[in-house]
Amino acid sequence: MYGSYLYAHNASHRGDNIVAVIDADMIGYAHTTEGGQTLYFASPERSKWIRDFVTTVNTLYRNQTNITVETVLQSSGSDFQSFDEYGFDTINAMGYDCNNESYYWEHIYHTANDTSDRLNWTYLAKVTKLLLAVVAEFASTPLELQVIITTPYQGYFYFFNHPLRPLDSWKSSFYSPRGIPMILGRATVNVDVISHNDTVDVIFYLDGNIQAWFYDNASSHNWTIHDPYNFPLIGKHVVQVYTYVYTPSEKVASDEINIIIYTI
Q1: For the sheet containing 182-184, what is the strand order?
Q2: CB atoms within 10 A of CB 169
Q3: Domains in the chain and their CATH numbers?
Q4: Three-state secondary structure call for residue 63
Q5: Mean of pLDDT values over 73-83
Q6: Per-chain mean pLDDT for the chain
Q7: In this structure, what are the phi and psi dihedrals at residue 263, rounded to the nearest 5 degrees?
Q8: Tell me: the pLDDT tens digits for 139-181?
Q9: Extended strands (E) in 65-208
Q10: CB within 8 Å of 25: residues ≥ 6 apart
Q11: Which of 24, 125, 126, 184 is the most exposed place for a label (fewest CB within 10 A)?
Q12: What is the arrangement of strands in the sheet containing 220-224, beginning at the earlier edge strand?
């Protein structure tokens, strides 16, 4: 898991615009008839749109892939978790039997028995076709609207708006607050908006409650994290940003960041 952590960590700090991460993990094992025809796609709630996209693509290419897609909510357990923690939308593809068969976990997974003769090569080929179709459809679908939180940086310690040091000491644990900025004092959330239209609204939320609404067509916006009633913010909170385009397509884009903040 160190590779995915470092990739996500560095991509976040560079400001890479990664639209979606597709993590293909354990896609070659199928021991049952149902397992040879089904592929799991799991993602955090914020990435539900990718699950919907995958389902649509599989409907288009079902004759070529002969695969049934099942989508589930999941937020941890594979390389996609690091990307999710650093603010990227992710999805995890996993073989159906890998997720449901105790024999696989007890006798094959991470053991010397995990050899090529135990792979179902026909299943692997079908899954690869579907993943290829998903990537191709992603690449050919124009992005009409995006909103991206650019700062605060994920996984940094902040004093007000000053990033003092990265929190790299937590990189080895799935259950640590890695990827979450820790902020002492008020800090500002900055966002960039990428749109092919002129009419764009940008709305900031704190823990699901509207805090600021911008009606202009600027390509960047900011909001200082605070409670509108001047109560101190203590502990973990979620900042969400939504942007809307008032056109017949009614496009909506969003981004969010978990923070740990202490203010007075």
Answers
A1: 162-166, 156-159, 182-184, 252-262, 234-245, 200-206, 209-214
A2: 10
A3: 2-140 (3.40.630.10), 145-262 (2.60.40.10)
A4: helix
A5: 82
A6: 88
A7: -125, 170
A8: 998 888 889 999 999 889 999 999 998 887 666 666 666 788 9
A9: 68-73, 90-95, 145-151, 156-159, 162-166, 182-184, 188-195, 200-206
A10: 78, 79, 80, 92, 93, 94
A11: 125
A12: 145-151, 188-195, 220-224
The alpha helices in the chain, defined as continuous H runs, are 2-14, 48-60, 62-65, 80-85, 96-100, 102-107, 121-140
Neighbours of 159 (CB within 10 A): 11
- CA–CA dist 146, 161 (Å, integer): 24
Q: Residue 76 corresponds to which tokens in the numbers above?
A: 């941890």
* Helices and strands counted in the chain (H then E): 7, 14
Place of tokens 């290419």: 61
Distance of alpha carbon 211 from the chain centroid: 24
The residues that bridge with 184 in the sheet, in sequence order, are 159, 262
Alpha-carbon gap, residue 257 to 183, rounded angstroms: 13
- Please classify residue 57 by burial: count the beta carbons closer than 10 Å to its beta carbon, then call 0-12 exposed, 13-18 middle and 19+ buried: buried
Residue identified by tokens 């390509």 is 219
Instruction: Pull the structure tokens for residue 9.
Output: 């960590």
